[in-house]
């Protein structure tokens, strides 16, 4: 394989104790430049067999759910020879957090393995020397010609003072600037990283998962062949191994940050069986409900996109796209976004101008900039909680009338700088730059996500020099949505300060992993899902989040242990919404989460009803 594997924590032990959730660092050997490509041998332990061993041993334990959580980083995260790999250091801290700090995870029985996948991203700026030396001959000619024409024009203007020589200078500058623009696009490495993500990162991770699948089948096959109780030939043993894994599959969960979200969805799209009858549908029946099973061993669990570098059009378009085909297969899906993410607003939307097939500028906005858009900006917590509850008919049936159905796009928008109000994703169809699709989406796939708008999120962080202080995590102090141009300029400075570990720095693109509560949400959703998040939160008192609950809520928490599961989940959901409200996080929750994780309706039946109901309404 083209991957190297190492322990995130040395020997998978902390203070001499085995990790509850073992962590591995998976690194692609794909080169930054193809001239650097050479065979790299994994001379250190562990190897992929160690990962397989952990997964197999977990399958032999009495656990309700087996899982493999894969976290993928984004653009501009390269590491040069001799320098620290900050991505690896961050994931090492995540592994320690999972095993030492999060009470809901550290004491669980061994059932999960955590992988941090490093693909061959490059850091800004790219090598200036390589960028100049690799200029094609025509561009070099244009650059030198433009500079020469400019120099001659300046000289003639100085000698003869004729104003028309200014035209010569302008022509030379235009030619040189054209090449300079291409040179600039090269050194910011966005397009180079996008190429490596698509053609290196995706195939490497696919092959790794395929090898895990094969290795786990072989492990069970060896078990049956060596069994004293039964006599198997190899063919029978492989068949029995597949049947055993079908009974209890390993759930694949992905945490994709920035461009890592694109890698995740591409990986799932390729791994999925495109000839699965449930994924095809036809012109008369748009109800596509493919299985979550991947290969012979895995199934898709949770998809968590954090500030994803994916076009917002992917949750709007009625056409097939890479997110749509992936999303239907996951059991749960979550999106964390912020209006103040200038990294996406600048780099990604500028790149979309060159590469995304749109005739208006707004279509180039990214999912990571989607916000919860409400007339009253001061509403926080789960903003559509009451609407979800009202969807239940009198006899508690899943099927309800079109009148009561509440699409999530109604609550979502994107802030446009030259507009006073945000663009709502279900309004302003007459606006020439509206984000609303010309035709309705028959599946309304956007309703499968639960959206966390963290623009105004306030919490304690691990930012340098601010430990223990409650601050804005993703925007500057005293800023509020909607943000103005001058506020984005201030945010950009704070973002650059964060690279130098300044006490004024704000990680506008990755701050979700620095806020205490947002980090808790992300990793609990990944490892135990929404239901597990609710079950764990109700066991933690408000003071553990530096909060004081109102008397009526505190009373409900005190008696929750005496209630049945559904009633307990209802209180937990109210508690979760209240915490988000106190942390100034806006949440637009998928109705599917309420039916499955609060009311404990069967997951498959809810998904079938959910999608078919949308089709019937379209």
Automatic annotation (TrEMBL):
Source species, domain of life: Bacteria
UniProt keyword annotation of tRNA processing present: no
Stored InterPro entries: AB_hydrolase_fold, DUF900_hydrolase
The UniProt record lists the keyword Flavoprotein: no
Residues annotated as transmembrane: 141-161, 167-189
Keywords noted in UniProt: Membrane, Transmembrane, Transmembrane helix
Protein's UniProt name: Alpha/beta hydrolase
Source species: Brasilonema octagenarum UFV-OR1
């Amino acid at each position: 394989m083209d991957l190297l594997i190492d322990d995130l924590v040395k020997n998978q032990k902390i203070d001499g104790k085995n990790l509850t959730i073992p962590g591995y660092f998976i690194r692609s050997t794909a080169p930054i430049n193809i001239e650097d490509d050479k065979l790299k041998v994994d001379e250190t332990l562990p190897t992929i067999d160690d990962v397989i061993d952990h997964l197999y041993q977990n399958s032999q334990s009495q656990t309700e759910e087996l899982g493999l959580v894969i976290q993928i980083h984004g653009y501009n995260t390269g590491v040069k020879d001799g320098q620290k790999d900050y991505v690896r250091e961050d994931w090492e801290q995540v592994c320690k957090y999972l095993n030492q700090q999060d009470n809901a995870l550290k004491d669980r029985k061994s059932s999960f393995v955590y992988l941090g996948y490093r693909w061959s991203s490059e850091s800004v700026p790219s090598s200036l020397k390589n960028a100049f030396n690799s200029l094609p001959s025509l561009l070099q000619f244009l650059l030198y010609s433009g500079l020469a024409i400019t120099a001659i024009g300046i000289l003639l203007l100085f000698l003869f003072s004729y104003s028309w020589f200014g035209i010569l200078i302008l022509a030379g500058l235009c030619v040189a600037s054209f090449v300079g623009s291409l040179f600039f696009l090269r050194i910011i490495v966005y397009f180079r990283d996008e190429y490596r993500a698509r053609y290196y990162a995706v195939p490497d991770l696919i092959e790794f998962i395929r090898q895990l699948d094969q290795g786990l089948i072989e492990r069970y096959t060896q078990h049956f062949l060596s069994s004293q109780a039964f006599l198997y030939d190899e063919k029978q043993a492989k068949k029995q191994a597949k049947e055993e894994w079908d009974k209890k599959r390993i759930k694949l969960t992905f945490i994709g940050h920035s461009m890592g979200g694109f890698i995740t969805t591409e990986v799932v799209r390729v791994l999925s069986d495109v000839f699965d009858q449930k994924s095809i549908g036809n012109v008369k029946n748009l109800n596509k409900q493919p299985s979550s099973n991947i290969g012979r061993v895995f199934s898709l669990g949770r998809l968590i996109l954090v500030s994803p570098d994916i076009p917002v059009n992917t949750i709007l378009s009625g056409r097939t796209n890479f997110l749509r085909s992936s999303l239907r297969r996951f059991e749960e899906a979550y999106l964390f976004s912020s209006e103040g993410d200038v990294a996406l607003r600048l780099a990604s939307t500028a790149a979309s101008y060159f590469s995304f097939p749109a005739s208006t500028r707004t279509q180039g906005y990214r999912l990571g900039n989607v916000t919860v858009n409400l007339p009253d900006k001061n509403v926080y917590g789960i903003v559509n909680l009451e609407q979800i509850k009202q969807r239940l008919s009198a006899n508690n049936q899943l099927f309800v009338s079109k009148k009561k159905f509440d699409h999530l796009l109604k609550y979502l928008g994107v802030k446009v700088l030259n507009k006073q109000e945000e663009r709502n994703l279900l309004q302003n169809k007459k606006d020439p730059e509206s984000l609303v699709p010309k035709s309705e989406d028959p599946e309304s796939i956007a309703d499968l996500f639960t959206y966390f708008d963290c623009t105004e999120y306030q919490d304690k962080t691990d930012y340098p020099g601010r430990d223990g202080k409650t601050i804005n995590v993703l925007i500057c102090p005293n800023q509020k949505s909607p943000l103005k141009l001058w506020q984005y300029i201030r945010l950009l400075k704070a973002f650059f300060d964060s690279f130098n570990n300044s006490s004024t720095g704000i990680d506008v693109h990755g701050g979700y992993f620095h806020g205490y509560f947002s980090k808790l949400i992300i990793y609990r959703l990944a490892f135990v899902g929404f239901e597990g998040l609710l079950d764990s939160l109700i066991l933690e008192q408000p003071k553990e989040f530096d909060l004081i609950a109102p008397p009526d809520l505190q009373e409900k928490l005190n008696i929750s242990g005496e209630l049945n599961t559904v009633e307990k989940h209802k209180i937990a959901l109210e508690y979760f919404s209240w915490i988000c409200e106190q942390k100034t996080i806006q949440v637009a929750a998928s109705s599917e989460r309420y039916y499955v994780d609060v009311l404990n309706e069967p997951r498959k039946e809810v998904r079938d009803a959910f999608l078919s109901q949308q089709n019937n309404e379209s």
